[in-house]
Design brief:
alpha+beta; 4-stranded antiparallel beta sheet
């Protein structure tokens, strides 16, 4: 049975600097270079809604500032 290799288009290996040699191992979610010995855990995607980025506005402060203008 042939093994299917999924490459990451345009990716450059941080070790050997070769382009289009980084592949994804779907079994353990690692990325690796087919040209050298580079192996790394695939970066995790960040959530679109990071709780630290949500701005909270006090409605009473908003009303006070609006009434002044």
């Amino acid at each position: 049975m042939k093994r299917f290799v999924q490459f990451i288009a345009g990716a450059i290996c941080p070790e050997c600097k070769s382009q289009d040699t980084i592949a994804l191992n779907p079994a353990d979610d690692e990325i690796y270079c087919v040209n050298c010995d580079f192996v790394e855990k695939r970066p995790e995607e960040k959530s679109k809604h990071n709780i630290d980025e949500i701005k909270v506005i006090n409605i009473e402060d908003y009303k006070k500032n609006r009434d002044k203008n």
